[in-house]
Amino acid sequence: MRIQKTHKRYVSSVVAGLMVTAITLTGFSYNDKTVTVMADGAAYTVKTHLNSNEGIVRNAGIKLNPKDKVISDSNSVQEGATLTVVRAFPVSVTVNGKTRTVYTTQTTAEELANELGFKAPNYTTAANGAIQSGSTVNIVRVTSRAVNTVDQEIPVQVIREKDDTMAIGEEEVVQVGQPGTERVQVETLYNNGNVIKTNELSKSVMTNMVPTIIKEGTREITTSRNVAGRASRSIVMEASAYLAGDGDGLGITATGVPAVRGIVAVDPDVIPLGTRLFIPGYGEAVAADTGGAIIGNRIDLVMDSYGEAMDFGRRDVTVYVLD
């Protein structure tokens, strides 16, 4: 009877062992997934039952150095996941005058300092804070810190506004600016009494800054220089000035258009009516009027005011006939 019981126990153990083996093998097969590993510019496709990022990378035949990092595009290794090998690179680090080379995958001096155990407020220096292979990082220990509040001036801002009623080159100050004031809380970091860095902690405006506003002209002025290429000919003429109300007082020209600035009277035998002209000191004009005294090389210009007409007086001008 004892022999039979022992035999039954042995058979049961063998069966249980086979069942565990079958379940284990089935489980490995069930957990197989295809993963992509990116390393050194190449992509590797790996079919694995492993769940460790580093284990999968090594299983793909890729060597990992002590400071290299493996990152995944998912929280857990699953079908279709991508693992990326980030290679550590050398950086020269100086602390208290002593320099050594370390390998890291960090991308900023601050992150590297934290990795090395030099957490804020210890101060690091590196170009733009970013580091790469061959960068030099200087870590300065902060031995003391002070916080002060200072009032400082807000510089006057100059605002330029375009104005097409003013000629190019003309400017007009329409508002005179006044500086403002702001209260700034500043943190100063020291290393054995030497200032190594100041940080602005907060800022509040005490007095608003008033900007200076300047209008600048955008209207292009036509000159004899820039009309020369547009003119078909030029005539030296004796010029005078008149007002719209002169003559019959109706302010209507010989061609029937109102007499306004930009209308001039000519001898039609010299300059046909309707011709576009340019007169230096007056601007562009249209020959649209005549006059009993306007004979030959004479021209009469309509002005806006009596004062303008008197200032212009009588003078010789070069009249450009525009195409």
UniProtKB/TrEMBL annotation:
Annotated GO biological process: peptidoglycan turnover
Keywords linked to the UniProt accession: Membrane, Signal, Transmembrane, Transmembrane helix
GO CC annotations, alphabetized: outer membrane
Keyword DNA-binding among UniProt keywords: no
Superkingdom of source: Bacteria
Ranges for domain G5: 139-220
Pfam families found in the cross-reference section: 3D (PF06725), DUF348 (PF03990), G5 (PF07501)
UniProt cross-references to SMART domains, sorted A to Z: G5
GO molecular function, one term: hydrolase activity, hydrolyzing O-glycosyl compounds
Protein name, per record: G5 domain-containing protein
